[in-house]
Backbone:
């Protein structure tokens, strides 16, 4: 993740004001963005829909989202729950009514 932060910083010499991730592997990027002096928006996509996609959470073997959920709650970051918040994940799910 450190490499990605360096690339982002060197590409425009400024911290971003928006960061989005879906696992603890993205936590450092969201923390770095949150340290911006400007208003910033941090977003986690919580993969909770094991039927339509892949679900991972605190106890998952891959794609773990544990520390990120705690920090998001503590700092008021936005967390989207795939199962609850997304009616459609893939375009082929759209039904013609």
Residues:
């Amino acid at each position: 993740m450190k490499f990605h932060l360096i690339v982002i910083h060197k590409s425009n010499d400024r911290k971003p004001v928006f960061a989005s991730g879906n696992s603890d592997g993205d936590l450092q990027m969201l923390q770095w963005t949150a340290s911006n002096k400007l208003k910033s928006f941090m977003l986690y996509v919580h993969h909770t829909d094991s039927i339509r996609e892949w679900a991972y959470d605190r106890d998952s073997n891959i794609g773990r989202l544990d520390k990120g959920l705690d920090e998001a709650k503590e700092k008021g970051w936005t967390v989207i729950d795939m199962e609850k918040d997304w009616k459609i994940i893939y375009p082929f799910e759209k039904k013609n009514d």
In short: Residues 70 and 93 are 32 Å apart (CA to CA).
